[in-house]
Write a structure and sequence with these properties.
OB fold (Dihydrolipoamide Acetyltransferase, E2P), 2 domains, single chain, five-stranded mixed β-barrel, about 40% strand
């Protein structure tokens, strides 16, 4: 009887140890894996930060940085960041330290949750239809579409509106020989799109992802070559 009780106790203890080990392993797997990156900040727009050492990942900063996020451009920093579920190209900054001489001083410690208001998930980019515009007199090439992407060049110019001058931003579409085909009016540029505009500043042309907000009247289109209006959500090389 004593032998049976001893064996039962040993079995219970063994199971308990296994369960505790499994729980510890699961806890380690589910806890965010914070990684550290050191490098010079190349781009900082809105909540987004880019340093090459992050190896293709963009850093999201959820709160206020001492001196402002833009002040980090050109500075050497040390960033501790954790992965973000369902956002494969983003990591969340937990802390940011700026290098001053041979030491680092903290300019940011995360104290709030991210909102991701203007972020476009790579999986959601598939919803944007690539347009092939060949002629301003072929509205079927763009009308009736609400989420589109076009390949072109961003251009800002000043136009007269009555006695006033205003700044207008266009995406200029050209043919293979570089001749202008058409223009798209950009109403708004999100922080996320502006962040990528800065990252891609060495490139002349790339893809622009737009939410279409309206169409240009046929008579106006004939004069200006403007097709439609849209909000710029994202831009990239593909």
């Amino acid at each position: 009887m004593a032998f049976r009780k001893k064996g039962l106790l040993l079995s219970v203890l063994t199971i308990s140890v296994v369960l505790l080990a499994s729980a510890a392993a699961f806890s380690q797997q589910t806890q965010p894996q914070v990684k550290e990156f050191e490098g010079v900040v190349k781009v900082a727009v809105g909540h987004y930060l880019y340093i090459p050492q992050a190896q293709g990942l963009d850093i999201y900063v959820a709160g206020e940085v001492t001196g402002g996020l833009a002040s980090l451009v050109g500075k050497e920093v040390r960033v501790k960041a954790s992965p973000i579920v369902d956002k494969p190209n983003l990591i969340l900054a937990e802390s940011i330290e700026i290098k001053e001489g041979t030491t680092y001083s903290t300019v940011y410690t995360r104290s709030s949750e991210p909102e991701f208001k203007d972020y476009l998930n790579p999986h959601d980019r598939e919803a944007y239809l690539a347009l092939n515009i060949t002629n301003i007199n072929k509205p079927e090439e763009w009308e009736g579409k609400t989420k589109v992407k076009v390949y072109g060049k961003l251009q800002t110019s000043k136009v007269k509106e009555g006695s006033q001058e205003k700044e207008v931003t266009h995406i200029v579409l050209t043919d293979k020989k570089g001749k202008e085909i058409a223009r798209i009016i950009v109403n708004n540029i999100s922080d996320y799109a502006n962040f990528y505009l800065q990252k891609l500043r060495l490139f002349d042309k790339f893809w622009f992802y737009l939410d279409v907000t309206g169409q240009v009247d046929k008579k106006v289109r004939a004069k200006t070559r403007e097709l439609f209006l849209g909000d710029l959500i994202f831009c990239g090389l593909f």
